[in-house]
UniProtKB/TrEMBL annotation, chains A, B:
Subunit structure comment from the entry: Homodimer.
CDD domains, per the entry: AAT_like
Required co-factors: pyridoxal 5'-phosphate
GO annotation terms (biological process): alpha-amino acid metabolic process
Domain Aminotransferase class I/classII large span(s) in chain numbering: 28-385
Chloroplast in keyword set: no
Listed name of the protein: DNA-binding transcriptional MocR family regulator
């Protein structure tokens, strides 16, 4: 009876949503959610910050902020991004309501219905849904353990793509990081084009080996034509998703349109949490917190890898992650992910099947295991459940 | 060199943005901003709430919330909206990142490029920019002091509109509220159609006379076909804009699409401020705060009306507001608003010209004066500056 617009009429709820209600059930061991662990949040820091806010800061926290961000936060973020080698002085910064809003804005800037959008395959589900919501045609480019396949990228340029979305560092869901060589190859190809690039660096600070910077140098810091690249980041993994703050660093012409989009999206991001994030960053608490939490994530990753070596059949393959939240496991040939998931749910363990991250939803024989949100004692039990079921399924198919 | 999408290529910065940087200058008396006064925020309440949060609530505040909202907040909001006579049980509720996000989502649900959107003329600038961002063709329907012109509404239905956006209560910028009779007339006309209605009730709680409920009964509480209406509201005026929270109450079929849109916009609204808003509402602090703050806004409105009677030429006409933030003044015939604004800025007072709120940006001989954000002593001085300049301009034109 009511007529929906073209852009929403075919929108369907994703399978991941139903999975999530299952994944938060207390009896379930969940490797499904891409969120930090509640037990690891910097609650004391937040309390100290809140109770030291001046009256003026408390007032600012409840008032509108400029659309592009609370100025003290923008200043601190600039300093912090400069330390990563990012070209802060020749670009402009926008605070976004989570980095997903930044992806959505970038999609709105460039995607008309039926336009081709290039992504990695697999890719972040939030980005895929943003591109879908503008009726973009997503073309996924396969990855190996060093990053995107450059030959396939070259071929895909003939499709006249309107943007390229990549997550070169501690990829969600693939868990890997582009090698320095692959980063350079990608830039060499893309610099010849005027296809805008969105570089999503939501996990870049969660390196397990802080010295190994080659695995996480941002494309935007590396490129000779960096104006082509919008660099986006997030406080979700280094403070908390509930503050809903991310950022975009982008050239002036992209910035002006992005600001206008954001104006009609939500006028400004929450000032309340911008004031907290400003103080978290400016006080050095953020750097201390990140240094602490990434050691814990490394331990969990190591623990999960150990458990996999013990309990999974050796036909299941994976690359040891160097940072981030995820382990991306190739199942033994011919094993059905959906069937495996159904079986492990019955035993009390849940994960996300690989097809969720495929731009066309195709089954690919992979599963994503998140280690960020599960304490060590549960990791072993959960991995054992999954491994046992894999072995059973292999026996059956003999 | 980079090709922007159709929906953003013609986006232009609105004049109001430049005005705002001027309006926040400390030497300027501003009647421009549509925001609460920093001095009136419930800072003590927020401090009490924050420091009484349980560890579990603190953790929840930093974690993702469900896309449709933090469940305890949804429950309290439902109770609170039920008390306003709203059909909570036959509808569903979504927490949005400010009510502007709700407007943007509703626009996305129904507006394809070149579709006609009906609004009042004048209308809320944020809504106009949201409809423009979907390339809607906005058709404004004139208002008088009792609400929208019903004959013009009937005529406009022949344009095959995809939605109707209205703010029946304490209108921004018109300052007036629809009479009960006009509300019923509008519903009688619209109920014959299947045009979805977005009812924006951002100011409904700020009635100067709490007993006079006829002037603020929601259309969605009054309609026999309420499923046609999405009711939206906001914490911005009854708590603080910086928490960036609003809500939409809508029928199940609208809800399912709206949830999917929100999923790709920002995944969820800030949990941190949702936890605070939940406690503000559940503790009864919100009701006490609103009862206090609306008396202050009434005093400011009365004070502004008195000053206008003293300082404006009697050819300037207005309707005494019954609630909200705004006074909408018709200038003496032939007076140019832009010229008046230029002159009063030179003297230290600023307001917003009426064309800003006209869907086609046409000059209409009105100005909007906001009394929410200016203490009484400054109201008199500012109104005198504007009145003196009006009188000067009238003399000159003789």
């Amino acid at each position: 009876m009511y007529v929906f617009s073209d852009s929403v009429k075919d929108l369907r709820s994703s399978a991941i949503r139903d999975l999530m209600s299952l994944a938060t059930h207390p009896d379930m061991i969940s490797f499904a959610g891409g969120m930090p662990d509640n037990e690891l949040f910097p609650l004391e820091d937040v309390g100290e910050i809140f109770n030291s806010l001046s009256r003026r800061e408390q007032q600012a926290a409840l008032q509108y902020a400029p659309t592009t961000g609370y100025p003290p936060l923008l200043q601190e973020l600039e300093k912090w991004l400069r330390k990563k080698g990012l070209p802060v002085d020749t670009n402009r910064l926008i605070v976004t309501t989570g980095s997903l809003q930044g992806i959505n804005i970038f999609a709105k800037l460039f995607v008309n219905p039926n336009d081709v959008v290039l992504t990695e395959n697999p890719s972040f589900i939030g980005a895929l849904s943003a591109f879908n919501s503008y009726l973009g045609k997503i073309h996924g480019i396969p990855m190996d353990e060093e990053g995107m396949n450059i030959e396939k990228l070259k071929e895909a340029l003939s499709l006249n793509p309107k943007l390229l979305y990549v997550m070169p560092t501690f990829h969600n869901p693939a868990g890997t990081s582009y090698s320095l060589e692959r980063r350079k190859q990608l830039l060499a190809v893309m610099n010849e084009t005027s296809v805008p690039i969105l570089e999503d660096d939501a996990y870049g600070d969660l390196a397990f080996n802080a010295e190994d910077t080659a695995l996480r140098v941002p494309l935007k810091a590396l490129s000779e034509k960096e104006s082509q690249i919008c660099y986006s980041g997030s406080f979700s993994k280094i403070f908390g998703p509930g503050i809903r703050l991310g950022w975009m660093l982008l050239s002036d012409d992209f910035y002006r349109k992005a600001e206008l989009c954001k104006q009609s999206f939500d006028a400004c991001s929450p000032t309340f949490t911008q004031v907290l994030a400003y103080r978290f960053l400016a006080s050095g608490k953020l750097d201390r917190y990140v240094a602490w939490v990434r050691v814990i994530y490394k331990q969990r990753a190591d623990y999960m890898v150990d458990a996999i070596m013990r309990y999974f059949p050796e036909e299941a393959k994976f690359v040891r992650p160097q940072g981030g939240f995820y382990l991306w496991v190739k199942l033994p040939d011919g094993m059905d992910e959906q069937e495996l998931l159904k079986a492990t749910i019955a035993d009390g363990a849940v994960f996300v099947v690989g097809s969720t991250f495929d731009p066309s939803g195709t089954s690919n024989g992979y599963i994503r295991l998140s280690f960020s949100n599960t304490p060590e004692e549960k990791i072993e039990r959960g991995i054992r459940i999954i491994g046992d079921r894999m072995k059973q399924m292999m026996k059956k198919s003999l």
